[in-house]
Write a structure and sequence with these properties.
single chain; mainly alpha
């Protein structure tokens, strides 16, 4: 199971990390071979990328929340 996280190229160590997380999520919920767990992991990655951007823009430009939302959408 841990072997799936390892990659032989030292310059791209985390190439398979999120694919393996999607695979393990599918195994855990009984959806082996489905693309849905990969899509869930992908959505969580987008959320994890967008929330700090929103928080930073909202912190510095607190008078316009719509600008913070647009900054997240334009990534």
């Amino acid at each position: 199971m841990v072997q799936g996280f390892l990659y032989s190229d030292p310059m791209r160590v985390h190439t398979k990390t999120f694919y393996q997380l999607g695979y393990l999520l599918g195994e855990a919920v009984g959806m082996r071979g489905s693309y849905l767990p990969y899509q869930v992991v992908y959505a969580l990655l987008w959320w994890a990328q967008g929330m700090p951007v929103y928080a930073i823009v909202r912190k510095f430009l607190s008078s316009s929340p719509s600008l913070a939302f647009c900054a997240v959408r334009s990534q």
